[in-house]
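Hi R.,

Here's the chain you asked about this morning:
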Amino acid sequence: MAIVSDKRLDFIENYCTLSLHVKPDKWTKFATSEDVLAMLNEFYEKQDITALVITLNPTGQLVPCLGFPSTLKNKAVYFVKKKHENITKENYLDGLLVGDLSPSPVEQLMAMILLLQVVYSLFLKNENLAGWPRVVAEDVIRQAHRLKNEMFVMGGKIKGKTLLPLPEHLEALRGHFFPVRITPLSF
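And here is the predicted structure, written out as tokens:
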């Protein structure tokens, strides 16, 4: 049986091998299975199926799932359709969102909070916003601060703690009212 190259399958293979560190023999076994190919075609061709998740089972075999599984034991990758449309060999790059799923969503959320704190601190430096219109820069800073605080409070709720958001202009008050550096509670 000759294997016909499919750009969509090659794209999924490249992402899975990079993200999940899958060996070529494991991928070949996965990609030549009739059941897997039927499931992938179902994902490509049915507009109402919008998500494909591929994870590793404990033996290191790839396991596909149409939709998001209720639990994960290992890292997984996802492919989500941006619109309810067929995924063709022409639109697969523009039509799919891809990413990684952690087996522990709490840890993934905490990593996101840390990333948001870094991004927000970059927005507070004037040299990073040089050339931006003032209104745009202020709006980006305000939105980043709001998102950072929402994620901070959500992380506290998940851990069973009450964490309050920090006021937006707290950095500007340092030195005036607070002689010591104030930092958000870390997880």
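One quick note: The chain has seven helices and four strands.

Cheers,
M.
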